[in-house]
Design goal:
The chain is mainly α. The chain contains 18 helices and no strands. It has helices at about 1-35, 40-50, 55-70, 70-85, 90-100, 105-120, 125-135, 140-155, 160-170, 175-185, 190-205, 210-220, 225-240, 240-255, 260-270, 275-290, 295-305, 310-325. Helix 2 (about 40-50) packs antiparallel against helix 3.
């Protein structure tokens, strides 16, 4: 009995010593972290846990340390250890949700969020995180559901409103998307990226005058006027102001000479505005640059016919059809555009 008592006393003493050692090394880890001795801190955190794996404070501190060092997978290991002991751990569960979000583990985010909701744990912007995860998983109906819930809580949260706009875009509900983006603009009228996005949405609805309005506003606010921006701006102008559209697109052609798509769009704009002489010149130029573009040759013939030279125009069309018989079907159409 005496020997047994000594045995258990020794075990208890060892456990106490281990616990004390764990606390000691945890303190050294904190001090090292504050002093920016990173490797020492990590070593002491590990020793603290080695001496007492049940030291919850040490695991939380170690996990937070890993987060600060952006060693997210190591942080997940520490948080998961806590969740194994308490599946609804009020600190570890929200932390692992945040990490899953940062690491773009969208399915995990949705799963952890459901557990957090069931456990009645308060997490800021939880519905937004769930919505973002559904959006990335291309489940736009669920994304919209959670975004509407988040907007009810935080109507001025820019990321929520903007993401809802993107959801509406994916669902081809452009009017709703524009309304969402305009709400976001109320919070920051100088957001040139959002102004540009609204312009793109108006263009998608073939409302080119409104598209140009927002493209120009984006330019005023400082958006980089790269080739993509200029091309979108120029293409929109072509629909109602051809000279201005050509002026803008010439800036693109200066860096992308002979760009077939741009030249074709300009030619079509002149054709639709019944300026057949310019349309003919442009279609001819396109074919000269690329003699495999037989459609351009055919269109130059059509423009020539519309201009009044039916004989020469018909000859050009016949030549194009001889190179590509499929173009013969265009003769029976009212419009070849």
């Amino acid at each position: 009995l005496f020997i047994t008592l000594i045995f258990f006393t020794a075990i208890a003493a060892k456990a106490t010593n281990n616990a004390d050692s764990s606390i000691f090394y945890l303190q050294k880890a904190k001090e090292s972290k504050e002093a920016r001795r990173i490797w020492d801190a990590e070593k002491y955190f590990q020793k603290s846990i080695d001496f007492n794996p049940e030291n919850e404070a040490a695991r939380l501190e170690f996990a937070n340390y890993y987060c600060e060092q952006r060693k997210y997978n190591f942080a997940l290991q520490q948080f998961n250890n806590l969740l194994q002991k308490n599946p609804n751990h009020p600190t570890a569960l929200p932390k692992i949700l945040d990490l899953s979000f940062v690491l773009r583990k969208w399915t995990d985010v949705i799963s952890y969020a459901a557990r957090i909701t069931a456990a009645n744990i308060k997490v800021d912007k939880l519905n937004y995180m769930v919505a973002k995860s559904h959006f990335e998983e291309e489940n736009y109906g669920q994304a919209r559901k959670y975004l509407l819930l988040q907007i009810a809580e935080t109507p001025t949260h820019k990321e929520t409103v903007t993401l809802l706009g993107k959801v509406y875009v994916e669902m081809s509900q452009y009017a709703e998307a524009i309304n969402m983006y305009k709400k976001t603009l109320e919070l920051n009228p100088n957001d040139f990226e959002l102004l540009y996005e609204i312009g793109l949405l108006y263009s998608a609805q073939s409302n080119e005058s409104e598209a140009v309005k927002y493209f120009e506003l984006a330019a005023e606010k400082g958006i980089k006027q790269d080739l993509v921006f200029l091309e979108n701006l120029g293409m929109s102008y072509l629909e109602f102001n051809i000279p201005k559209g050509v002026e803008v697109l010439n800036k693109v052609l200066a860096k992308k000479p002979g760009d077939v798509e741009i030249l074709t769009q300009i030619a079509q704009a002149y054709y639709k505005s019944e300026n057949f002489a310019v349309a003919y010149d442009l279609y001819s130029k396109i074919f000269e640059n690329d003699n495999t573009n037989v459609k351009a040759l055919y269109m130059s013939g059509v423009a020539m016919i519309k201009k009044g030279d039916k004989t020469r125009g018909a000859q050009i069309c016949d030549k194009a059809i001889s190179l590509d018989s499929k173009l013969g079907t265009l003769r029976s159409q009212k419009s070849v555009l």
